[in-house]
Specification:
Layout lengths: L2 H8 L3 H12 L4 H13 L20 E6 L6 H11 E4 L10 E3 L3 H7 L18 E6 L2 H8 L6 H10 L3 E3 L8 E3 L5 E8 L5 H4 L10 E5 L16 E4 L11 H15 L10 H15 L10 H65 L4 E3 H7 L8 H10 L3 E6 L2 E6 L16 E2 L2 E2 L18 H6 L1 E3 L5 E3 L53 E2 L22 E2 L1
Parallel strand pairs: 1-7, 1-8, 2-9, 3-4, 4-7, 17-18
Antiparallel strand pairs: 5-6, 10-12, 11-12, 13-14, 15-16
Helix pairs in contact: 2-3, 2-4, 3-4, 3-10, 5-7, 10-11, 11-13
Length: 549
């Protein structure tokens, strides 16, 4: 469809020119406003009026429209502009107030058109709803409902499109829903973001996206100067009598399309294309305001072809944008995976290098064969052995010795097996367990500052009889101890002495050992005197242990 055909389309009828001007005055895309206007116009067609059975049975005139565009492009405001642009009236003059509902469950759609319950007086609690429009501003709402466990929404929408029987025959009367076919008129308007159109496009096998008219919400041809907003146009419901008639050009196109489907030469996404085109033609007929015997003519069919061309182009654009977004997501995930693998590989290589240095440091002979060294590594590091020894050799940390039996490796003289921040084992220091150190040797009497020898050595007799000071020999610099010499706690770098803060000063005097009590021994007789007679018992208390003779 060229720009000239678009211009011819918008100027073909006064109502089409009105819709374009009103949409541009509100800075909305004319195609989006037209799509919503067609759904509302189809609501004026009685539920019992349908398309004749040219292929299969009678076809319902329920119309679905998908308004496509990025987030915040004005899908909701396009619906509002369509309501303000055209005022609908029933043929008896009353203003049409088409009820609009948010989408819910498949059962909820059926209950919308169920007969109302009766009150205690036998009167209906509300008016019977036979025509309704369901609105879904964001496709994410429908996607969440489609993905629910046990959801019947998508299958029920496909039945609504064809005007089939709705509901479920449950055992309980209060949960039983049944709406006969062709007894309801339903329209659906869905806002679709290209990157999230999977909720509709993924249902291609079931025929979901083929049932929609896809129209854009952005218009690159929007005029720089805003046109004046025209007054709303009033459209009165035509007087329908039975099913609509279809022109011969439409019947021939439908017949050829059915033959192509049987021969497998039709794109699956175009399975319902001509049926949707007939529905668009019927909606355009209502917008044209014909009050005589309504029928779809050749002009309606041709104008509907322009709308379907825009729909095909828009749907293809949505598919392209979705594919591009999926490719970008896949590329991002691939880059993230590659970066993660690179970090893991570098970390494994570093671990392999550290392991090689540690094992070489443990060799008593100072060197070992590469095969033996490789076996000592963990299983996940062995693949990095060759790269590890190659880098260590390039860094000069190990020496490679080529022999007839293979390469041998040993540490270079300046190489260290591991850094101080990561000792081989925290429990040992250089292979020797950390135990309590030996207390420092007590100062001798000669070294004690209070001994007479020390005082005498501080002065010597000079020829004049005056004492002279002697300079003490400077002690050698001893290495700073790294651990406390009393409790073996690691000393900080700023420590000035060999003891920590808790052990600084002379050690506490140990408590004097308590002497064990000595047992008093005494010799006693065997209870007889020197004449062999029994002795009288002693009157003293038995405070000590007796030892018999």
């Amino acid at each position: 469809v060229t720009g000239i055909e678009f211009e011819e389309f918008w100027t073909a009828w006064p109502i089409l020119a009105h819709i374009r001007q009103f949409a541009q005055s509100r800075r909305r895309c004319p195609w989006a406003v037209l799509g919503v206007s067609m759904v509302r116009a189809a609501g004026l067609i009685p539920p019992g009026t349908a398309l004749p059975p040219h292929a299969g049975g009678r076809a319902s005139l329920n119309l679905f429209v998908a308004l496509t565009g990025p987030s915040g492009a004005g899908k909701g405001t396009s619906e509002a502009a369509a309501r303000d642009a055209i005022a609908l009236r029933w043929h008896h003059g009353a203003v049409v107030d088409l009820p609009e509902f948010p989408i819910g469950s498949g059962e909820g759609i059926a209950r919308t058109f169920m007969p109302p319950p009766m009150d205690k007086d036998g009167l209906p609690e509300r008016e019977q709803i036979t025509t309704a429009i369901f609105s879904v501003p964001e496709i994410d709402t429908a996607a969440g409902l489609f993905s629910r466990s046990g959801s019947t929404l998508e299958s029920e929408l496909r039945k609504v499109f064809s005007g089939e029987q709705l509901g479920f025959t449950n055992a309980q009367a209060h949960t039983r829903t049944r709406v006969p076919a062709h007894t309801y008129r339903c329209g659906l308007v869905v806002g679709v973001q290209p990157g999230r159109a999977g909720a509709l496009l993924d249902g291609a096998d079931g025929g979901t996206p083929q049932r929609f008219v896809w129209l854009p919400v952005l218009d690159a041809d929007m005029p720089d100067e805003r046109p004046a907003e025209p007054a709303p146009v009033v459209i009165t419901q035509p007087r329908f009598a039975g099913d609509l008639t279809v022109p011969k050009v439409a019947r021939d196109a439908i017949d050829a399309h059915q033959l192509a489907m049987h021969r497998g030469t039709v794109d699956p996404l175009d399975g319902h294309k001509l049926l949707v085109r007939l529905k668009v033609a019927a909606a355009l007929m209502v917008l044209d305001g014909r009050d005589e015997k309504p029928a779809i003519n050749d002009e309606d069919w041709n104008l509907a072809g322009v709308v379907m061309a825009v729909s095909d182009h828009t749907r293809a654009w949505v598919q392209h944008e979705r594919t591009k977004a999926a490719q970008q997501n896949n590329r991002g995930r691939a880059l993230a995976t590659a970066e993660r693998d690179e970090v893991i590989s570098d970390r494994k290589l570093q671990r392999a290098k550290e392991a090689v240095l540690r094992w070489l440091a443990r060799q008593a002979s100072g060197e070992t064969f590469g095969a033996d060294l490789r076996r000592k590594l963990k299983a996940d590091l062995r693949d990095n052995f060759s790269a590890a020894v190659s880098e260590l050799a390039d860094e000069g940390r190990i020496i490679v010795i080529e022999t007839d039996k293979g390469s041998r490796y040993r540490l270079a003289a300046e190489s260290t097996p591991c850094t101080e921040s990561t000792p081989l084992y925290p429990q040992v220091n250089g292979g020797v367990p950390k135990v309590h150190g030996v207390p420092p040797v007590a100062a001798t009497a000669a070294d004690s500052p209070s001994s007479p020898r020390s005082d005498a050595s501080a002065q010597s007799d000079s020829p004049t009889g005056e004492p002279t000071l002697t300079t003490a020999e400077e002690p050698m610099n001893q290495p700073r101890p790294k651990v406390c010499q009393r409790c073996n706690v690691e000393l900080p770098l700023a420590a000035a002495g060999p003891f920590c803060d808790d052990c600084d000063g002379p050690p506490a005097r140990p408590p004097a050992a308590r002497k064990a009590p000595e047992t008093t021994l005494r010799v006693v007789h065997n209870g007889t005197n020197d004449r062999g007679l029994p002795r009288a018992p002693s009157k003293r208390p038995d405070a000590t242990r007796d030892v018999g003779t």
